[in-house]
Amino acid sequence: MENKAAFLNSKGTPLSIQQAHLAQPEVHEVLIRNHAVAINPVDYKIQDTGVLVCEWPYILGEDIAGEVVEVGSAVTSFQKGDRVVAFALNIVTQSQANGGFQLYTATAASMVSLIPEKVAFTDAVVLPLGLATASGALFSTEYLGIDPPRAAEPIPTENKKKLVLIWGGASSVGSCAIQLCAAAGLTVLTTVSPKNTNYAKDLGAAEAFDYNDSAVVKNLEEAALGKEIIGAYDAISSEASLAACVDFLHAVGGGKLSLTLTNTKLPDLPEGVTVVAGRPPLQGPDGGEPIWRQVYKDFLGAGLQNGKLKAKPDAFVLKGGLGRLQEGLDLVRTGVSAKKIVVELMS
Ligand SMILES: NC(=O)c1ccc[n+]([C@@H]2O[C@H](COP(=O)([O-])OP(=O)(O)OC[C@H]3O[C@@H](n4cnc5c(N)ncnc54)[C@H](OP(=O)(O)O)[C@@H]3O)[C@@H](O)[C@H]2O)c1
C-alpha cells in the first residue's frame, strides 16, 4: 500500500500532493482507505490563518469514509473490509497519521461507525464533524444537557412539549443538530433562508423561519408559546445570530445558549440568559469527548440504517482524487447553502 496526502506546508499556501508515510494504527485505532472526504469551514480557516496547527506540514480533513484495512490490537468492534465513516482527529491529536486529506488515515475506533450498504461513501462522509460538534453542544451536561437519542430505541413522545431552537438549520452542524433533537423527541424550531424551509422540515424541524426577516425573533417567540424551553443552539455563532438567539431566550423567559464558535464577541446578557461557548473538553487519548463516542456508537450507523439519521446536507461531489481538494476548499470558502463539498478519492 502506498500513501499520498494533500499537505498544507504553511498558512496561506495551496495544498501540495506528495507521497506520505503510511501509518500503522495505534492499538485503539483503525487504518482506513479513504474513498471520500468532506470539507469543512475549519479547513479553509486553517489554510488561511494557520489556526490550530502546532507543526507543519499539516494534513487537513476531519470527515472520512472508506474501508478498514488494518485494526489496532485492542480494537474489537471493526474488522478489515468494513465500510465505515469516521472523524479524523488530527485537529485534536496534531498527528499527520490522523489527518483526513490523504489516501490512508488512522483514527480512533471510538470515532468510527459502520455504514449500511445502501448508503454511499460520498453521502455518509458529510456527517462526522457536524454530528460530533452538534452532539457536544446539545448533550454535554455543561451545555444543553439534552438526553442523547439512541437509534434502536423509540422516539420518546413525552419530550414533544420541550422545545429547542437551532439557529442555522441549513448548515452542516445545524442539520445534524435538528436531526439529533428530532430523534430525541423534542420540538425543534430553526432558522434558514426561505429556499431551505422544506429542507429543514424534512430533517425534523417543526417550523423554520427566515433569519433575514426583521420579525424572526417575534416569529420564533410565537411558535414557542406553551412549550417548555430547553435552550438554544447557535450553529452559526456570528455576532448577529448570537444576538438574535439571546433576544429569543430573553423573550421566552430565559435559558441557556450553546455556541459553535468560541471567539465571537458576546453581547451584554439579560438576566436569565446564559451562554456556553465552544466544544466540551476532549478527554482521553483514544478518541475525543465521551458524548461523541456515545453518539457514534448508538446513533450514527444505526440511525443511517433505520432512517432516523439522513446524510445531510447533500453532498456536492468532486470526482478525481486528492487533486480536487484545493478546488473544494475554495468552494467552501466562497460559501455553501445546504450542501457539503465532498471529494471522491476512489470510485
Ligand atoms: N467548534 C467546532 O468544533 C466547530 C465544528 C464545526 C463547525 N464549526 C463552525 O461552525 C460554523 C458552521 O459550520 P458548518 O460546517 O455547519 O457551516 P456551513 O454548512 O458551511 O454553513 C452554511 C450554511 O450556513 C447558513 N447560514 C449562514 N449565515 C447564517 C445566519 N446568519 N443565520 C442562519 N443560518 C446561516 C446558510 O443557510 P442558508 O443557506 O439557509 O442561508 C448555509 O446553508 C463555521 O463557522 C464552522 O467553522 C465549529
From TrEMBL:
User: SUPFAM superfamilies, alphabetically?
Assistant: GroES-like, NAD(P)-binding Rossmann-fold domains
Pfam families associated with the record: ADH_N (PF08240), ADH_zinc_N (PF00107)
Which keywords does the record carry? Oxidoreductase
Q: Does the keyword Transport apply?
A: no
Q: Name one GO molecular function term.
A: oxidoreductase activity, acting on NAD(P)H
**Every Enoyl reductase (ER) domain range:** 12-343
Q: Which Gene3D superfamilies match?
A: Medium-chain alcohol dehydrogenases, catalytic domain (3.90.180.10), NAD(P)-binding Rossmann-like Domain (3.40.50.720)
Q: How does it assemble?
A: Monomer.
Family according to the record: Belongs to the zinc-containing alcohol dehydrogenase family.
Name of the protein in question? Enoyl reductase (ER) domain-containing protein
